[in-house]
Structures are given as C-alpha cells and as structure tokens.
Amino acid sequence: MKQLFDQASQDCSKLITRSYSTSFSLAARMLAPSIRKDVYNIYGFVRFADEIVDSFHDYNKEELLHRFEQDYYRARKEGISLNPILNSFQKTVREYNIDDHLVQAFLESMKADLGEIKYTTKEELKAYVYGSADVVGLMCLKVFVKGDQEKYNELKEAAMRMGSAFQKINFLRDLKEDFEVLNRSYFPNVDLKALDKVSKDKIISDIEEDFDYAFKNGILKLPMEAKFGVYTAYRYYIKLLKKLKKVPSAKIIETRVRISNPMKINLLARSYVKYKLNLI
Question: 229, 31 in Cβ contact below 8 A?
C-alpha cells in the first residue's frame, strides 16, 4: 500500500530530525500534530542536503548534491521516490503548494557551500542567507498557514527575518569549523582571525533587530497550531545569542556555545507558562 510507504517515509524524516537536532526536534514536538509531520519532512530534506556539503568530505560532494537534486525533481514529477526523505518532502511540497523557487534558492546556496566561501559584500551574504535559511522559514510558513496565501504574505517578512537571525547565530557559533575546516567566511569585511568588539557587536545588533521584528510581526500572529513550537525555537536561539554576547570577541572563534539538555527543558517549561498565560 502506498499509504504505508508514505507513513514509513515520514517516520524516516522524523527520525532524521530527532537524530540530527535535539533543539529543533524539541520545538517541532510543540507544533500541532496536523502540521508537525510536514515540518519533519522539510527538515529531513534540508538536513540531508546540508550534510552532503558539510560532512561527506571523502566523497564527491558535487556529484552527490547533483544526484540529490535530480532525484528530488523526479520525485516531484512522479509523486514518489524510493528515497524516503525525498518521498516525504515531495508529498509536503505538493500538499502545500510550496513554490519551486524556494527549493531552487535553497539548493543554490548549498551549491555555493561546495567551494571556498568569502563574502565581501552585504548583498552577497544576504543572497546566501536567503537561500540557506530564509526560504526554509518560508517553506515552514506555507505549512503553518495551511495554504492561506493572504496570511502567508502577511507573515512572509517576519519568517525570513527569523530565518536570517537563526542562520547568523549559527555562523557565530560555528566560526571555528566554518573558517578553519570548511574555508568559509560569511561576514563581509570582518577579520575572523581577530574579530573585534565593534564587529561582533554590530553582528549581534543586526540579529537582535531581526528577532524583534520577527517576534512582533510574526510569532504573535501565527496560527495557534504553530505558535508555541515557533516560540520555543525562538527562545532557544535567544538563549544562544545571550551566551554568545558574553564571550569576548577574540574568543568567539575558539568557542562553540551550547545549551545543555536541562536548560532546554527549563526553557521549554518557561515558554509553556507564557504560552498558557497568553503572554505570547
């Protein structure tokens, strides 16, 4: 039965999410069951593409990513793939009419990660972040609003800015691996070997502005099925940002901040109280 295969495919996407990201998985569990599975499906797709360019160093990454893209479009056309991650993702794309330019923009940013990266202008960085993070937020937003195009348009900018904030925090947190292992330098006109306080504060200020906009114009207006889950992810990244602010600029490249599992549970509990008290 195709239904059984589709369920097994979605279970694989759920397993990938829980295996690769405890924080995202925790936030996803706070989504309503009616939309949770589709967010798992989106995460499974973007996680696999990201793993190809970030982790498979002993293999031909370019060929693997090209094959992954071809297999996706074949699945999208035929409505099925024997790759369970692609099968579940194409099903979500079809159900919520996710625009192909979002998928294409994401894959283009993944292709950019195949080589050495050194962005020299804000425009270059913005284009990369749009493809690597903003569009993922927009894919999820399609699911959150259940096809309501008017609501999607209203929340689109907020979803993009929250995706940008998440990505920039990831850049700061992963500076050492990105710069020393993967030869990537995402922040224009910043000497990562000697990151100064002014540059660090500017980056953090930009992130805070994105978060402020995303919270006021996005999270507060989300449908109830999505609000608590998105707010949980937001609180997790706010905590990461606070920890990064405390790290001296010269030490950022040597430090990878983390949130302990007990702290994640604490954040979840406090977020739930605010949610139940209608404070969000």
Answer: yes
Structure tokens at 111: 């292709």
Number of domains in the chain: 1
Domain that holds residue 42: 2-276
Q: What is the pLDDT of residue 277?
A: 66
Contact 57, 3 (CB under 8 A): no
User: Each residue of 151-172: pLDDT tens digit?
Assistant: 999 999 999 999 999 999 998 8
Q: What is the mean pLDDT of residues 233-247?
A: 94
Q: What is the DSSP string of 126-193?
A: HHHHIIIIIHHHHHHHHHHTTT-HHHHHHHHHHHHHHHHHHHHHHHHHTHHIIIIIS-EE-STT--GG
- For residue 245, CA distances in Å to 15, 162, 197 come to 33, 18, 10
Q: What are phi and psi of 85, to 5 degrees?
A: -70, -45
How many Cβ atoms from other residues are within 10 Å of residue 213's Cβ? 17
Which pair of tokens denotes residue 48?
């696999």
240 contacts 173 by C-beta, under 8 angstroms? yes
Is this structure's pTM higher than 0.85?
A: yes
**Cα–Cα dist 153/117, whole Å:** 32
**Residue with tokens 């950019």, as numbered in its chain:** 112
- CATH number of domain containing 248: 1.10.600.10
| Overall average pLDDT of the 130-154 stretch | 96
- Report pLDDT digits (tens) over 61-77: 999 999 999 999 999 99
